[in-house]
Structures are given as structure tokens and as C-alpha cells.
What we know:
Strand content: 15-25%
Radius of gyration: 20 Å
Helix content: 40-55%
Bound molecules: 5'-O-[(R)-(carboxyoxy)(hydroxy)phosphoryl]adenosine, zinc ion
CATH topology of the largest domain: Nucleotidyltransferase, domain 5
Strand order of the largest sheet: 3-2-1-4-5
CATH class of the largest domain: Alpha Beta
Amino acid sequence: MLILGFETSCDETACAVVKNGRLILSNVIATSLKEHRKFGGIIPEIASRRQLELINAVTQSSLEKANVTLNDINAIAVTKSPGLIGSLLVGISYARALSFATQKPLIEIDHIKAHLYANFLYSEHFPKCQVQHRKPGTFGNVPKPPKLPAIGLIVSGGHTSLYLMKSPIDYQLLGQTRDDAAGEAFDKVSRILGLGYPGGPAIDRLAKTQTDSPLRFSCAQMEGTHDFSFSGIKTAVLHHHQRNPNATPTDLAQIAYSFQDSVVSILVKKSIAACLERKIKTLLLGGGVAANSALRQKLTAEGQKYGIKIFLPPMSLCLDNAAMIAGCGYHWLKSQKSTKS
Length: 341
Ligand code: KG4
Ligand code: ZN
């Protein structure tokens, strides 16, 4: 079964073809990120205007790369929410029109949960990337899918949530951030330090130049809950930076290291705790912050310590993409819970 997926929740215009919910035949992503950099964040108007211009070409390219035509497609999946309203509207309107014109079913997908589904996907075009954190399964080169139930940590620019994933369509929210998302904290701290947008990769790179830091910025622990809070640590960095305005490049690197270390520690601690509490042996990571090198390392190390199998999406599937939307769409279609336009 072939699903054509669309993702336009933020600055990306993405279209993918996924076979049987797992095999990526194409995954085309165009982004307007560069145009937003000078503003220090995404400008919704610019994002949606670009998406309007790009979506036709991105769709054509995705079908061509998958070597299929619209006739071969069984259903269409699109990001329903959350996201920028103008951007979502471009994808949803396009997908609904396509569904109407071709008389193919339309499935509308929750973007956040789809991020976790990235761990179920694989591709014959970049197998190394797909199997680097897992052993190939018993079916030829097809990597085994993660065993469910699993704990899922979603860390993106807009969300930080812990889920109990019972099936690809059944999720129970265990906890979430009470204020800023982890990615948002990375972006804001980067802005405070003058490192530019997006902040996550900039802080990640700078923190890598240090092996320790004399500074300590701590995150609120939110004891007794699966919740997170990142606004306090962001403010602590701001106050520190205001008190020390003549920071050298080394000072900035130490701030980046300490901030990142603290955010990563709480994310890992709460995720492992949720696994232990529920006696679950599989942990899935998803969302843009899943690209963070320190988070990937620490989660892998702690997983080994506690006998928990950690699934990290390949870098190409950490950020927003349509393959995760098409993959989820397959399961919704199978479960007959699709939403026809
Ligand atoms: O999932 P995503 O592409 O968009 C949302 O749905 O929000 O995530 C974007 C977020 C941004 O906040 C960005 O700074 C963060 O992911 N990010 C990172 C890294 N790469 C991207 N955060 C930490 N370390 C990274 N290497
Ligand atoms: Zn996202």
C-alpha cells in the first residue's frame, strides 16, 4: 500500500511516498529556514507564502523520486496540527483537493505523535543511516520495528512530552512541559548568547568544544511527575549573561555546555524513570531536538545501563518531514479510522 504524505506545519514544505507504513520511497523536503534567520525566528507569513509556491513542485518531485504516479497511490496523509495556522492550511487544502480530485482517502495526522513514528521507517537509499542504532532484523535488510508498548520522548521546538505508545495509533500522554519546549529553550538561549537561529544546532556545536564547565545551570526537577519545565534555566542563563556582558568565546562555550548538559540530563532522567516505572524496555526519541548529539549519546549510554533498547531516528528524520506522516497514515487507514474529506 502506497501513502502520499504531506507536512507543512512550520517552515518546511515536505512530501513523501511510503510503502506499507515503513519503506520510504521518497522524502522530499524544501525549507524557507534561511529566509527567517535574520529575524531570529520563523515568520509565519513568509513560511506559508513559500509553501504555496513550493508545494506543487515538491509533490511532483516526490512522485518522480518514488518512481510512481498519482494513480499508484492508495491514500493521502497530511499533518492536521499542531503548527502555524497559515502553513497548516496550505498542506491541508492541497491534500484535501488532491483527495477530492483523485477520489482517494484522506487521513489527517497529529504532527507530534508522528515524530515518534520516524523510528519505524527505513529506506533502501540510506540503509546505513537507518540501521546505525539497531541491528538489521531477520527479514533480509529490513530493520526490525521497535517493540511496543514503548515510552516515547518527543522533543521539538514546540513540544516536550512523554508518551506511552501502545500501538502506532494509540498513545497515552504521561507528562509534558509546563512552559517552554526544550527546542524553544535552545533557540532562546542561543539568541541570548548571539549564536543565531535555529539555536539547537548552534549550541550543540559550541558545547562540543568543551568537556566540562565550571558553571551550573539547573532545570526544575518537577519531582513526582513526568512533567518538564525549561523557562527557569533559560532565565538563569539570561541573568548570568547580563551580569557578565563581556563574555569571551570560551565563556560562551561553557554556558552552552552547562545549559545543554542540564537539559539533556533531565530529559534522559525522566524518560528512563518512565520506562522503569512502567517496566517498559523500549524507548523512542523523536522531534527536532532528537538531533542533539549529547542527548543521543547520554540516552544510548543510560539505555545500556538499564537494559532499555533506545531507538534514535536517523538525523534526516529528526526534523519535520512527510515520511513520518505517510507512515502514520498507513496505520490509521488500516484501522478504518480515516477521515474522508
Ligand atoms: O521538530 P522540529 O523540526 O520542529 C517542530 O516541530 O518544532 O524541531 C525544531 C527544533 C528547533 O527548536 C531546533 O533548535 C531544535 O529542534 N534542534 C536542536 C538540534 N537540531 C534542531 N536542538 C538541539 N540540538 C540540535 N542538534
Ligand atoms: Zn516537528
